[in-house]
Structure formats: structure tokens, C-alpha cells
């Protein structure tokens, strides 16, 4: 796990991050499942939507940081990078899974991470509509939601043939990357699609074993990394190296299942 600050600093970070998540919830929910919600396409070829809910949520979170952490850097999906002097960066994805958001599915989420030069050491994944919040750091691994508060702990599945694996898009990435994913999925017990950041949260909560994706940005993966690692899991790229800069990600519940999936990915994607 990435080296992290002491408990007092993590508690302060957690307080600020939860205020930010509350503000993002308040900004987003008035738009969710509302008739006439407009989205803009970021891509000339394909569909990558952004809505006013995305922008409003990031503005709300940035306003808190500008007041409480003016020396910290910010990397956000909608408003880019703001420099800081503290060595600390807040990494924000106001709605991870905007395609799901505009489709009315409650599988999108607000992602907040705090990182230093070594990577993320605090992560929060929030699903506003069902009021679930997953938090991970050296200080805690915790889920709060309608059923109360519980400790996050990943599964102990040892064999790939017993594993549940997720990815967001059936095509995964390039044809070669899709073939590598299928090499793992064909040996797993169950494969599911389309959950965006919620799949990573389910892995941390001990519900699934693997999440495999490609084409990620730093703001897509840093919060899930911190949450999953705090819960006992492992997240790397497909080479087994740190994944916090984005690209290809392999998130696993434990070292055994990670090693089996990694070997297949490397063999198929070589």
C-alpha cells in the first residue's frame, strides 16, 4: 500500500472529503432521472457524455478545497489541473459513469482521492442515489449506507474458476485488450458488465473478485485504488506495476487471484 500520512492528517482529510461528497450529492441529485436532462458529447467519434450535474458537482467540491486546502493541487475531470505547493493532490471525478447517469442506472459515483508523488493514500467512492459511501485509507476501510456502517474486506477466493469478474464495456479497449480480458473471463465463474466505479466498490466490499479495465484516466482509478487496498485487495496495471496514472487496470481481491489473472492478461496482451 502507498505510504500515507499520520492518523490526524487522515482524519482531517476524511472530514473534508466527506463534506465534498455531501456537496456533490446535493449538486447532482436534482438532475438524476429528470426529464429533459441534456448531455454534451466530448468525442467526435463515439459517445462520452458530460452533463451540468458533472460540472456542478466538481465546482461544489473545488469550492470547499479552495477554502480549506488552498495550498493543495487539484486534478478534476471537468476543470483540469490546478497547481499546489503542499505536495498533496485531490483527484476528482464528479460523476464516474456519466453514461449510466444519463441512462438512469444507480451505478455511477463520485470519486475523491488524495495522492502524493507515490500515488493515492485516501479514497472515497460515493453513490448518492442509494446513499452508499465507501472510504479507504490507512486509518479505515468503511462502508456507510442504508444498512448502517460496516468494515470493508475483500474476498479470499483462491481459484480463478470460482471468481466473479467485472468490466465496464464489453469491448474493454483495443481488440487485443478485449481478447486478453476474455482469456480471464472464460476461466471465471461469472462475468458481469457495465458497473463503472461501483464494480470497484463491490470488490472492496467483498462481493466480487476482479475488475479489469483499459483506457482509464488517473481520476477514474485513484479513489478505487485507495479503497480496495485499504480493504485488503490489490490494484496494478497489466504489467503488475502501479496503476494510479490510468491506462490498463487489474483490481483483485487478493494476491492469489491477482497473480492468476495477471498471468493470463500478460500472455494474451503480449
Structure report:
The protein is α+β, with helices and mostly antiparallel strands and 270 residues long. 34% of the residues lie in helices and 29% in strands. It has helices at residues 7-28, 52-68, 98-103, 175-185, 197-204, 218-230, 255-269, and strands at residues 39-41, 49-51, 73-76, 80-82, 89-96, 109-116, 119-127, 132-137, 141-145, 148-151, 164-167, 190-193, 210-216, 234-236, 247-252. Strands 4-3-5-6-7-8-9-10 form an 8-stranded mixed β-sheet, with helices on both faces. The protein is globular, with a radius of gyration of 18 Å. The chain starts with 6 loop residues before the first helix and ends with a helix. The mean pLDDT is 94.
How would you describe this structure in keywords?
270 residues, eight-stranded mixed sheet, alpha+beta, 7 helices
Helix/strand layout:
Layout lengths: L6 H22 L10 E3 L7 E3 H17 L4 E4 L3 E3 L6 E8 L1 H6 L5 E8 L2 E9 L4 E6 L3 E5 L2 E4 L12 E4 L7 H11 L4 E4 L3 H8 L5 E7 L1 H13 L3 E3 L10 E6 L2 H15 L1
Parallel strand pairs: 3-5, 11-12, 11-13
Antiparallel strand pairs: 1-2, 3-4, 5-6, 6-7, 7-8, 8-9, 9-10, 13-15, 14-15
Question: Tell me about the biggest sheet?
Answer: 8 strands, mixed
Shape: globular
Distance separating the two termini: 27 Å
One letter per element, helices H and strands E, the order comes to HEEHEEEHEEEEEEHEHEHEEH
Helix content: 25-40%
Q: What's the pLDDT, averaged over the residues? A: 94
Content-based structural category: alpha+beta
The stretches of 5 or more residues where confidence is low (pLDDT under 50) are none
Our estimate of the beta-strand percent is: 25-35%
Number of strands: 15
What gyration radius follows from the Cα positions, in whole Å?
A: 18 Å
In what order do the strands lie side by side in the largest sheet? 4-3-5-6-7-8-9-10
Helical element count? 7
Amino acid at each position: 500500500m502507498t505510504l500515507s500520512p499520520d492518523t490526524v492528517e487522515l482524519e482531517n482529510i476524511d472530514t473534508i472529503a466527506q463534506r465534498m461528497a455531501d456537496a456533490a450529492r446535493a449538486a447532482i441529485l436534482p438532475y438524476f432521472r429528470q426529464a429533459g436532462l441534456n448531455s454534451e458529447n466530448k468525442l467526435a467519434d463515439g459517445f462520452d457524455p458530460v452533463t451540468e450535474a458533472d460540472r456542478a458537482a466538481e465546482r461544489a467540491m473545488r469550492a470547499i478545497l479552495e477554502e480549506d486546502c488552498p495550498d493543495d493541487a487539484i486534478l478534476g475531470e471537468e476543470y483540469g489541473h490546478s497547481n499546489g505547493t503542499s505536495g498533496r493532490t485531490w483527484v476528482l471525478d464528479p460523476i464516474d459513469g456519466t453514461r449510466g447517469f444519463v441512462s438512469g442506472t444507480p451505478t455511477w459515483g463520485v470519486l475523491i482521492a488524495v495522492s502524493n508523488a507515490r500515488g493515492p493514500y485516501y479514497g472515497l467512492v460515493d453513490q448518492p442515489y442509494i446513499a452508499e459511501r465507501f472510504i479507504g485509507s490507512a486509518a479505515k476501510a468503511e462502508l456507510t449506507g442504508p444498512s448502517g456502517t460496516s468494515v470493508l474486506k475483500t474476498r479470499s477466493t483462491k481459484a480463478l474458476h470460482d471468481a466473479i469478474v467485472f468490466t465496464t464495456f464489453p469491448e474493454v479497449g483495443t481488440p487485443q485488450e478485449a481478447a486478453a480480458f476474455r482469456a480471464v473471463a472464460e476461466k471465471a465463474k461469472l462475468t458481469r458488465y457495465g458497473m463503472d466505479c461501483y464494480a470497484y466498490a463491490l470488490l472492496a466490499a467483498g462481493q466480487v473478485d476482479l475488475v479489469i479495465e483499459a483506457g482509464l484516466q488517473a481520476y477514474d482509478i485513484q479513489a478505487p485504488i485507495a479503497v480496495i487496498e485499504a480493504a485488503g485487495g490489490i490494484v496494478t496495471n497489466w504489467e503488475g506495476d502501479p496503476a494510479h496514472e490510468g491506462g490498463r487496470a487489474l483490481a483483485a481481491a487478493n494476491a492469489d487471484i491477482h497473480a492468476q489473472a495477471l498471468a493470463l492478461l500478460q500472455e494474451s496482451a503480449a
